[in-house]
Amino acid sequence: MDKLDSSSDEVVMKLVEMGFEKLVAMEAVKAVGNSCDDAVEYVLKGHHKSGTSKINKALGRRAMPSSFSSGPMRQSSLLDHFKSVDRNSKKGHSFDATVADSQLETLSDPSEELRKSSPPVFFESSCFPDTQLSNGCSEASSTWEKRVNSILRIRFGISSLKSFQREALSTWFAHKDCLVLAATGSGKSLCFQIPALLTGKVVVVISPLISLMHDQCLKLSMHKISACFLGSGQLDNRIEQKAMQGMYQIIYVCPETVVRLIKPLQRLAQTHGIALFAIDEAHCVSKWGHDFRPQYRRLSVLRENFCASKLEFLEYDVPIMALTATATSHVQEDILESLHLSKETKTVLTSFFRPNLQFSVKHSRTKSSASYAKDFQNLIDFYSEKRKATGKKLAVISRESEEQTDSGYHDAENIHETDSDDDEEDPENSLAKPNSSNGKEMSEDYLEDETNISQRVDDWDVACGEFCEMSVLSGKQIPDASGHENSLQEKDFEGPTIIYVPTRKESVNIAKYLYGVGLKAAAYNASLPKKHLRQVHQEFHENKLQVVVATIAFGMGIDKKNVRKIIHYGWPQSLEAYYQEAGRAGRDGELAECVLYANLSRVPTLLPSHRSKEQTEQAYKMLSDCFRYGMNTSQCRAKILVEYFGEDFSSKKCNLCDVCTEGPPEQVNVREEANLLFQVITAFHVENSSEHTSYEDYGLGNSEQKKLSHKPNLLFFISRIREQSQKFMEIDRLWWKGLARIMEAEGYIKEMDNKGRRVEIAYIEPTEKGKKQLDFQEDKPLYVYPEADMLVSLRQRRTYSGFSDWGKGWADPEIRRQRLEAMKRPRERRPRRERSQQRPLKLQKKIPWRSKE
Ligand SMILES: Nc1ncnc2c1ncn2[C@@H]1O[C@H](COP(=O)(O)OP(=O)(O)OP(=O)(O)O)[C@@H](O)[C@H]1O
Ligand SMILES: [Mg+2]
């Protein structure tokens, strides 16, 4: 590529700062000169205003007639354009040519051109009665399908519509609102892109991420479709003006901006027509979803302001199409209600099932390089083999991220210090603890911003930029950082892996680890420099990276076909988020793996965020469902996932996941243990039904302590069982926890008001069902599949003399005094030691009043 002069360099840099890929920016500057605005327009529209003919010629495009009308115009039926199209085709013009040409129109001066331009071909009366199309069985519908298919072939290189796309489009044709629920990677975007191409009217797409809009615009421009994005991420004010004059076929806009633009959009509907409002990632509307954005709730203004009863020039309401891949039934209802969609809204539901995704769950402490070495060995071996064939590694971690990495490593060692399983046996923890946790014990600095639900949408600017797949570059030799040619071709490179981690710190730690062992790995989280993030995106798409270690910032909108493996390293916060991120894999339809590594012996914790009480309860429920997915050992994982979204998978299974392929574990009879646990719980509740019973009766507290804790939790019951029966001394608490969960799922016990950050069953009460079935000495076997934590406990069998002694120790007045003293003291964070002073891990496990296990 020719070298650009210094002012050109500045423009290129500015474009790169705005998020454009450097090669594209350089090409634009070369084509249009040093005007930043022109360059942006060149990239987004695919051509430049002053040099249209030259550029079009260079790009092999035709000169196009104007399709923009001047005066106000009645928005007629969405089908109206077909009449003219039909007429055109009878005259020998193909529909595609007519519409395609009109849509590639570029105007030098919008106002002038608007005055001059002739009426567009699509504002004529319909040749297809609506009823025919609504019925979806007419000759007309097959005609429009043929046209759509031809557009698909020419514009997108796709042979035909999928049935859900056809259904969504028929609903749009019938002027009805529509909720599209379809799996990740199924092709929802086409449902709202096609209406713009069919009618020539504008489609307005509401999207949560500026960078996602940006990416879709770039992709559309590659398909020669003009599009723009509006929002605070858009630095050029003129784009908004032009968009409101109908100069782009598709307008991507964030919810705040669309609310602000209601009036101009009404004018646009009058002058040019708006074919559709599409609300992408519509689960963001719902408080019950995993990614709630308050601004999305304000989108009900669309239905209110773009209906025929309000705007007299409209014959029909402008249809609204809401689309998502991750909405439970509850969320679906909330979307319909919150958006005030019409009563006749059609829900287009396809299976959420992704038959090529192979799900599995593995136990791992997911901390420290020892875990990394064990867990990533296969990955390292796999890519190392590939590397032998493909040459050098890249310097993919920028200087800035290196600096962060160093401190990250330092902190990683402190995780060891507190990351002992013994934490959960802490006596303070085994007694009921009020929901005192506000999350401050986790370093919020290292948490991804995206977990903060109160964040404004525009803060997401660089959080999830997805650059277009560089089709122009694929297959070319791409020089690496050292200037050598890097020859990672498709044949050598089966596809990259994305590792999702809960915190930024871990993204850097793991990336550095993998890079250190020779993989082409990079970290991606919102705090890293924009330049680094863009580089990661670009190299990921160019198949120059083997592994991206990312937070949720690299989730929504990543549409790269050959991602072969998604690893979640640590508990995700919900199954929605998990499925959304897993959905980045196998978008080419080929087999891809989705592995969740989680510490099955520790319950997951809600990451700190600003939540209302209601939201905390919801977040707790979602995390709890995720935990149960991980604990499951007997049901097909794909079935759990799709049924979570309300789909009936009945007797089906995926035959790919670890449960389907390895089979469930052997069932065990837990009758005796279940009876015993139930009886201990019931006994406590009966005794405690009197207001006067206090913890002191159990030797467990005084009035001070009662303030701290109101009721004993599961660990207390376990210690009671151990005290009472030698026989059960050997059983690990993990096993009991698993059993309690099974009993709760069966309805024998129920969880009380524990809505802390740990999603464990802590406070329990017996149920009527339990009383009927467990509260007596019943011999009938009670067979269950042991859950994952129960199996882990069997693998790491320990003796529990320690717990027993601890339980009994309460009888000794001196021991009791010391323990209560210790409990009264606020738990202070231990000052961080210098690395050199840190004690070996083993010693730190010791808890003063507990004998070493
Ligand atoms: N009818 C079709 N036939 C073949 N491929 C298609 C079809 N429709 C869309 N695709 C392709 O499917 C891929 C994924 O499309 P898209 O990004 O729209 O998915 P999505 O449903 O929006 O996924 P997500 O929920 O992850 O955002 C694209 O690369 C697109 O080209
Ligand atoms: Mg999408």
TrEMBL record:
Gene3D superfamilies: DNA helicase RuvA subunit, C-terminal domain, P-loop containing nucleotide triphosphate hydrolases, Winged helix-like DNA-binding domain superfamily/Winged helix DNA-binding domain. Residues 3-46 form the UBA domain. InterPro entries: DEAD/DEAH_box_helicase_dom, DNA_helicase_ATP-dep_RecQ, Helicase_ATP-bd, Helicase_C-like, P-loop_NTPase, RecQ_Zn-bd, UBA, UBA-like_sf. Residues 483-642 form the Helicase C-terminal domain. The keyword Hydrolase applies. Residues 842-853 have a biased composition (Basic residues). Keywords: ATP-binding, Helicase, Hydrolase, Nucleotide-binding, Nucleus. It holds the Pfam family Helicase_C. Its main location: nucleus. Residues 66-75 have a biased composition (Polar residues). Residues 169-345 form the Helicase ATP-binding domain. It comes from the Eukaryota. Residues 54-75, 394-448, 821-853 are annotated as: Disordered. Belongs to the helicase family. RecQ subfamily. This is ATP-dependent DNA helicase. It comes from Eutrema salsugineum.
